[in-house]
Design a protein that fits this description.
It is built from ten helices and twelve strands. It has 292 residues and is an alpha/beta fold.
Length: 292
Amino acid sequence: MSFLRNCALAGAALALALVAVPARAVVEIPDSCKTSGFALGCQAWSFNHFTVMEAIEKTHEAGGKVIEFYPGQKLSKDQPGVNFDHNSPDAVLDQVKAQLKKYNIVAVNYGVVGLPNNAAEIDKVFSFAKKMGLYGVTSEPDPKAMDLIEKAVKKYDICLCIHDHPKRADNPNYKFWDPNYVLSLVQGRDKRMGSCADTGHWVRSGVKPIDALHILKGRVMSSHLKDLNEFGPRAHDVPYGTGVSDVKGILDELKSQDFKGNISIEYEYHMENSLPEIKKCVEFVKEYGEGK
């Protein structure tokens, strides 16, 4: 339990680090919040049939040490009309922080959230992230907003993590699935701007995750790490190491790149009762660190 308490204390240290880190440095999540060298936890979307409070509890039960929130999740069972997002008042944020402390979970990221070409809206999201002591904001931003987003990254010292959904046959203008496109958006910009590597969506798009990670080397800010049962758009999540995604190879590549961001288990299968399979994902990463 002392280790878990240290992780919770490290969350407060992370919030302070967001202020203290010099410009153009990538903020690091404390080692005390890591599993086998990775800041491993859940994307709250894995528990989107539940509330924020339950998602935090379930992340703890799964063995994760960090959590990535998403906008609009119901806050709690006893407050069904209250959502949690970057528009929430401080009183709601304080309730979430208390739940995080109770279960020794550190909030590290938020998304996927829209970042339009609007300075006030971008500032609202990053200000919220600052209040929550986050490492990163995950988005599929308006490409025209990159200058404004870069200013927010520098102002708040919080990473931008550009997410990828699958290639869309009905929308050839959708490009975030292509790691080369994501790289083009951040190339020459602040080092805190890069990719949220959703490995499952790359597989669905016909992109090999390790190849994509090579392309984005030095710009991988975070990951939605998935293993899928097959290649192709109809594939679904399975526990790490039981599908086609070469999770060990992905972890090896992230390790070789000295990856410092969060890995979120975003499990979108059996969502009414995904916890047993998410536990297996956490166990896989633990065993990876043990060399098994």
